[in-house]
Amino acid sequence: MKDYSQQILSGEGDNDYARYMRTDRLLDLQRRSDERVHRDELLFQIVHQSTELWLKLACAELRKAAADIDNADLNSAIALLTRASLAMGLITDQLEMMRHLSPWDFQTIRTVLGHGSGSDSPGWLSVRRDSRTIGKSFTTFVQNRGIDLAEVYRAARHSEIHRLAEALIEWDERVSLWRVRHFKITARLIGHHATGTQGTPVAMLTKLISHRFFPELWEIRSFLTETGPMAQPNADSTQEFGDE
């Protein structure tokens, strides 16, 4: 009988699970109990570190999806965008853990954060960069093929290009919902009129909530409303998609 108790992978750890998942290293990435100024530092670090991991996955999916669009493999791009959006939903949900931080206790944790700020997050820097990249890939695909997105939506058929456009909208919306939740949690912890660790007013976060990576895809909805059955008789039905 085969002995499954024997380790066959090389590396650190007492068993193959630990060696493949690198759990020894992973679980050593948080400050030790004797290093923490407050016990909730563990909660704070785990929420943020796990966010970075999910964003690493989400952005890997975005980059591959952009390449798939460039190669006209829209079904694959749609599937990958769906996975990226799910990852964004997961990091939004886990912000609920931050509700269990006391505003006063968090002031103690802030004393050891230095100038650390979410604006320096490698995951969020990647979100911004990779979202722009996939947006360019989509725009190039549409323009090179002379696709009229208004007609795509009017057709009311779930074509590949329609599903891809909606997958991009889903990603954009998921990012925005995270920003809303993050702002609410931040305001709950330090107040609306406070400043962050890099001197940025909390209120500045509200400006990011309205940011859109794919404004043309949002604007097409306004265009469809303005030219739809309920539009005013004097509505400009000659407007082209993407016009300012």
From TrEMBL:
Matches recorded under Pfam families: Trp_dioxygenase
Concerning InterPro entries, the annotation shows: Trp/Indoleamine_2_3_dOase-like, Trp_2_3_dOase
SUPFAM superfamilies named among the record's database cross-references: Indolic compounds 2,3-dioxygenase-like (SSF140959)
Superkingdom of this entry's organism?
Answer: Bacteria
* PANTHER family linked to this entry: TRYPTOPHAN 2,3-DIOXYGENASE (PTHR10138)
Q: What is this protein called?
A: Tryptophan 2,3-dioxygenase family protein
